């Protein structure tokens, strides 16, 4: 390696080595083989168990699972996608242990972003630290939001690549955009991708305005066309995921409303507004960007014996040290239902962001400011209903996503970018000293002044009372007084903490401006300050206590109820009332469940839950309150028309007790004696709980007219499940007369196909969401196979897009090589 190449390469190598080291230092328990187990990781283990087990033992993957909600596609659970042109990059980082590789990705991703903005390597490394150690990036790891973390990391260089394409290198920027966007989409969190596209939309509008003012429309259009091509290639590489998701999305909770009278969404589809905005950041809560625990921190936090609560317990004669070391307290007092922690961007980042408003060039400043403000206001959700409702009603696809507070990830990108650009402008030494001094005073005065104000007058923040405080009464009523005082003390401590960091950062810049510090020294000072500011706050929410041994993490042990049920080798479903049935996937780890957990279940199933299943579950609860014997419990189960048609054979009410066996479950399939025509889904949903589903079937009139009017009695007729695979069900059928069979399987015609002796035959929707089929006399096999055309189409497009990207990269590399190896005189003629 020659000296010139080495001089360019070694800063990047040093930065990456530092990123790896600091990631291992932060997550040091991984060295001992420990892992972080987040709630969503455990949930995913349950919902994906059937799929991963099947795919591990079969050459062709299953795209359907029966483990949740009576059955659903695996597209958003654990779908196998084809290898693509970017798969090797994606796989490379997974060689590092989780969660080390998440932090490495955060750091490298933002480092690449800043390099794309022509920031020098040292400042880029500094900015990567500032971005990566934001509290939210660690909170999502604790929660088990793996896809969110990986997508956040990969979307950072997407931003940089798009900016590069417009500002410096059109074609390299487009190629990098295609690569990193493909990785971002592949990571699987489309909501994060969508928010970043919103930010880039703001940037592109800004570029268009400047192009008009500077009369560079042609250049703008060429660049935009190149980036559009890059986006198409990136989407093409992920076509399998995108096409299947798009298709399924129309039938899920996030799609258009169903035609039932129950459905609340009757406009442009998507989720209900209350559901979308349930997690809305409070307007005052925005101060957490500057002061981390401004609103108390997480919903469940710790206090020590020196807190107001600890001192009160001591005065009452309790062992405060013991109690405070084990007890968790409701410290968050904001308006969100709950939170794992605040979005803390960093006191120094906030200070530098404001400084950047004075120092950074307008072509960067305005779109970064606009993106930041838009992010904050949309995060307020229902607390700023005018803007939020406009976006939900009129901005395409915005209503497909919940938890609006998540959009603060935009500020998580824009504020560190502005902060580093401010430092870069400062270090370039082309700023008038008087302007710099004035800007420094304003930035420190605004950010530091806010911290000082809340430290001196904490009541400006509010009353520090949480809705959770209402639960304390009797001997614990004192907590209504002590907890607000503790929350106030927490806020004051963080206000003072942030003030100190702002003063130190401003002081370092002031000394540098006086020419008493070299740039290298300033880099080092800010590196130390960033780590000192961000690292401890991140540790509040993800620390060594979150790690467990691999054996503990992997140990999903069956309960006594599970063990009993698992002895049954037939096909059945389980309703687990010992958990929240429709918000818990643990049952799916061992059984096919009536319930489950998924943010995009079929809308028809959600309607069934609301209209029929919840009332039937309430009826079961009423039975338990009065039953004295097993017979008292079992007898009323015969009236549960809907749960029985879903083949609920077992009912868990206590995980360590014997489950209730339901002798009235319809089974996996059965013949009906009567067809009842209905006008539409709305009528079917309303009536399905009123019929005898074992002998009667609701069928829409258009289909019912083609079915036999009567059924000849045949006591010898049989239909049994002969073969079970999640995506392939084979039934053995025998009858001397026409029959209509109903199957306890969810109707989804975007992939399920019926066959009789290998020949495709029609089937229909019965009882609102089950499958039915008319069968002629004879003895033969009836098969249902799930093989959606959208999957194979997506694979074809994915392979073609991957080949195209590889050719473009090779072609770009070849032309770059030719340009660099040409004779200077010849190159000058071009």
Chain-wise SSE layout:
Blueprint: H1 3-26, E1 34-36, H2 39-57, E2 64-65, E3 72-73, H3 87-93, H4 100-116, H5 121-132, H6 135-143, H7 146-167, H8 170-186, H9 190-213, H10 217-237, H11 239-249, H12 273-276, H13 308-315, H14 320-326, H15 347-359, H16 362-379, H17 385-394, H18 409-427, H19 433-456, H20 479-513, H21 519-541, E4 547-549, H22 550-554, H23 560-566, E5 573-576, H24 603-626, H25 630-634, H26 641-645, E6 648-652, E7 660-661, E8 669-671, E9 674-678, H27 681-687, E10 696-700, H28 701-704, E11 718-725, E12 728-735, E13 739-746, E14 752-756, E15 759-761, E16 764-766, E17 770-775, E18 778-786, H29 789-821, H30 824-829
Helix pairs in contact: 1-4, 4-5, 4-7, 5-18, 5-21, 6-7, 6-21, 7-8, 7-9, 8-10, 8-29, 9-16, 10-29, 11-29, 13-14, 15-18, 15-19, 16-18, 19-20, 20-21
């Amino acid at each position: 390696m020659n000296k010139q190449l080495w001089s360019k390469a070694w800063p990047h190598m040093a930065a990456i080595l530092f990123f790896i080291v600091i990631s291992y230092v932060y997550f040091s328990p991984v060295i001992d083989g420990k892992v972080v187990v987040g709630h969503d990781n455990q949930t995913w283990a349950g919902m994906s168990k059937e799929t991963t087990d099947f795919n591990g033992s079969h050459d062709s993957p299953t795209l359907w699972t029966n483990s949740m909600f009576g059955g659903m596609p695996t597209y958003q659970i654990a779908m196998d996608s084809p290898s693509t042109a970017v798969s090797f990059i994606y796989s490379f980082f997974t060689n590092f242990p989780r969660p080390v590789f998440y932090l490495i990705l955060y750091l490298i991703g933002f480092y690449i972003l800043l390099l794309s903005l022509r920031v020098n390597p040292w400042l880029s490394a500094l900015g990567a630290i500032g971005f990566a150690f934001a509290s939210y990036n660690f909170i999502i790891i604790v929660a088990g939001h793996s896809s969110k973390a990986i997508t956040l990391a990969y979307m950072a260089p997407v931003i940089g690549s798009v900016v590069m394409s417009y500002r410096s290198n059109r074609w390299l920027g487009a190629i990098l955009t295609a690569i990193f966007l493909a990785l971002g989409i592949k990571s699987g969190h489309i909501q994060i991708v969508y928010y970043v596209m919103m930010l880039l939309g703001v940037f592109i509008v800004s570029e268009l305005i400047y192009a008009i003012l500077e009369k560079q429309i042609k250049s703008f259009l060429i660049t935009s066309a190149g980036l559009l091509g890059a986006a198409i290639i990136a989407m093409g590489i992920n076509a399998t995921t995108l096409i299947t998701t798009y298709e399924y999305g129309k039938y899920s909770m996030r799609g258009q409303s169903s035609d039932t009278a129950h459905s609340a969404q009757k406009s442009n589809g998507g989720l209900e507004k209350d559901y979308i905005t349930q997690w809305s950041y409070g307007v005052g809560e925005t101060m957490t960007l500057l002061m981390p625990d401004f609103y108390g921190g997480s919903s469940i936090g710790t206090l020590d014996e020196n807190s107001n609560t600890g001192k009160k317990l001591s005065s009452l004669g309790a062992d405060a040290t013991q109690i405070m070391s084990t007890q968790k307290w409701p410290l968050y007092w904001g308006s969100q239902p709950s939170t794992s922690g605040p979005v803390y961007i960093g006191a120094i980042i906030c200070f530098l962001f404001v400084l950047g408003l004075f120092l950074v060039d307008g072509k960067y400043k305005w779109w970064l400011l606009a993106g930041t403000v838009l992010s904050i206001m949309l995060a307020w959700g229902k607390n700023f209903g005018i803007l939020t409702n406009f976006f939900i009603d009129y901005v395409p696809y915005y209503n497909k996503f919940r938890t609006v507070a998540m959009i603060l990830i935009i500020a998580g990108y824009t504020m560190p970018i502005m902060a580093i650009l401010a430092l870069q402008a400062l270090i370039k030494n082309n700023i008038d000293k008087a302007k710099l001094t004035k800007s420094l005073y304003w930035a420190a005065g605004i950010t530091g002044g806010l911290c000082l104000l809340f430290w001196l007058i904490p009541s400006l923040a509010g009353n520090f009372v949480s809705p959770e405080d209402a639960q304390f009464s009797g001997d614990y009523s004192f907590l209504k007084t002590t907890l607000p005082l503790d929350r106030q003390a927490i806020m004051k401590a963080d206000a003072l903490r942030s003030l100190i960091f702002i003063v130190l950062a401003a002081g370092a810049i002031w000394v540098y401006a006086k020419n008493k510090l070299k740039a290298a020294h300033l880099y080092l000072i800010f590196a130390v300050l960033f780590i000192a500011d961000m690292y401890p706050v991140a540790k509040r929410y993800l620390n060594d206590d979150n790690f467990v041994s691999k054996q503990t993490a992997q140990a999903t042990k069956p309960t006594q109820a599970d063990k009993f049920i698992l002895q049954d080798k037939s096909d059945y479903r389980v309703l687990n009332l010992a958990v929240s049935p429709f918000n818990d996937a643990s049952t799916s780890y061992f059984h096919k469940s009536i319930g489950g957990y998924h943010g995009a279940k079929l809308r028809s199933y959600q309607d069934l839950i609301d209209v029929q299943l919840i009332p039937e579950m309430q009826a079961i609860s009423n039975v338990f309150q009065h039953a004295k014997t097993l017979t008292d419990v079992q007898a009323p189960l015969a009236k549960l028309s809907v749960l029985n048609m879903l083949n609920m054979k077992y009912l868990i009410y206590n995980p360590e007790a014997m489950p209730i066996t339901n002798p009235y479950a319809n089974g996996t399939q059965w013949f009906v004696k009567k067809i009842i025509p209905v006008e539409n889904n709305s009528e079917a949903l309303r009536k399905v709980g009123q019929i005898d589903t074992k002998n009667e079937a609701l069928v829409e009139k258009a289909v019912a007219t083609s079915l036999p009017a009567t059924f000849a009695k045949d006591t010898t007729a049989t239909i049994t499940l002969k073969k079970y695979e999640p995506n392939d069900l084979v039934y053995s059928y025998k009858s001397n007369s026409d029959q209509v069979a109903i199957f306890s399987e969810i109707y989804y015609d975007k992939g399920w196909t019926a066959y009789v002796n290998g020949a495709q035959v029609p089937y229909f929707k019965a009882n609102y969401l089950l499958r039915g089929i008319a069968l002629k006399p004879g003895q033969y096999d009836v098969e249902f196979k799930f093989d959606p055309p959208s999957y194979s189409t997506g694979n074809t497009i994915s392979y073609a897009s991957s080949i195209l990207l590889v050719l473009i990269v090779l072609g770009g590399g070849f032309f770059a090589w030719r340009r660099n190896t040409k004779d200077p005189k010849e190159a000058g003629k071009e």
